[in-house]
Amino acid sequence: MTATSTHDTQPPREQFTGQVGFILSAIGSAIGLGNIWRFPGVAYENGGGAFMVPYVIALLTAGIPILFLDYALGHRFRGGPPTALRRAKSWLETLGWFQVMICFVIAIYYAAIIAWALSFFVYSFDLRWGDDTAGFFTGEYLQLSDTANGGPWFSLDFVPAVLIPLLLVWVATIAVLAGGIAKGIEKANVIFLPLLVVAFAVLVVRAVFLDGAGDGLNALFTPDWGALGDPNVWIAAYGQIFFSLSVAFGIMITYSSYRKRKANLTSPGLVVAFSNSGFEMLAGIGVFAALGFLAHEQGIAVGELEGITGPILSFVTFPAVVSQMPAGPLFGALFFGALAMAGFTSLISILQVVSAGIQEKFGLTRRQAVTGLGVVAGVVSVVGFSTTTGLIALDTIDNWSNNIGIVASAVLMCIFLIWVLRMGPELRYHLTGVSTFPVGRWWYICVGAIVPAVLAYMLVSRIVDLVQNGYEGYDETYLLYAGWGTLVVLVVGAVLLTLPRWRVDPDRFDAWPTYPPVASAAATSGKETDR
């Protein structure tokens, strides 16, 4: 069996043009909204400078190992999650479709946040949000339904300021995905990723020279060593690494499947992981330097500021910073432009998972799959998130799909592949066989014990908390439909997508390099075909 062997029934697979294109695309996927608005606040609230200790340990024992697991699956079995997991074992196909469903759900609300960033990019030039940034964001811009005073939990009252940029986001996304891997996704990342880094670097350099910036940086980096004794701090570190690397829900499985058969995996994986963490550090410096300036202008301590994480940081707190800093319109445009680019490169990677799954199972061309997917996802996105209840729906669905859906996917994948199917040696053999950086036995411990144990604890804790306490004070009936109902949609969708016959038999496939290496080519080929 050679590296180029393939069955006649398998159409030629698209490929990245080379290692640099793959690395840029993988970094573009990993660097998203969470790097900018989640990491700084999580670090500040969990020990400041001391948080770097569990953060680095989590990166080495969970982030990189599960990234390697995704790479090994996608590259060895040459497909998106349903194809790759089916080729590992036929009954794992449903887990692959579960990951596809997660990506679909995330994409429809992720696009809305990019639309917000585009709107605020335009608003930056005349500082349209005025002095009351909170009132502008939830009131004038989102026209948020007042559910506390009897407003509807779901409405079809569309908000033009959100609807128009959201439509533009979907048009741009469909155009990029229709261009394919090399001419669409790779080219978009080659353009946007350098622009994102340069724009954010300029913003950070300016922020650190603002009055009060030092106070903000001291607040972020002053270590609280006592926090290391709190298990929740360690859980927060693992959660941050897990959510920021785009692992365990299909993206890196799909991207690695578009690499050549003889392609280095582990060294690029290290570059992607450390680049993602490096950008998070850059974001932390920029955000807290800006928060220090805002606190200085208001005559309060950094710890007294509200809204230092999540959408409120980006669309309420940061506009307040921009309004008070010299050359505010320019730096506001840089910030929201960077936010939009970070979100867009992540969005196209998320939707490529869905597109790949549809193409491979139903035998559709790339353009057919992208067009159909884009129309359906775009309509659902517009109906659900460009209305006066869009923010509430986004917040709820995001919480259930991320904190339960993705985490459950990761736990199941590790348990099934490492413990049930005992595929750790084969996947490790594949990683080492094609890469310059060998993977040692430590990898088994990480993906077989540390990752599932930590994530299972996170999953159970989150479910118990949601059952007992609800979420954000939202109506229980609403949470039943929008929150728990999201999980039902994920599971039912995965099952229904598993049922149809494959247009092209995915089991007529030979994994390369052959495993076990001592077996004859014929015996190994027979083993792989049975999968």
TrEMBL record:
Subcellular location: Membrane
UniProt keyword Transport present: yes
Protein keywords: Membrane, Transmembrane, Transmembrane helix, Transport
Native organism: Isoptericola cucumis
Stretch forming the signal peptide: none
Key word Cytoplasm present: no
Identification of the protein by name: Sodium-dependent transporter
Superkingdom per UniProt: Bacteria
Topology class, membrane: Multi-pass membrane protein
Annotated TM spans: 20-39, 51-73, 94-123, 158-178, 190-213, 233-258, 270-295, 333-358, 370-394, 400-421, 442-460, 480-499
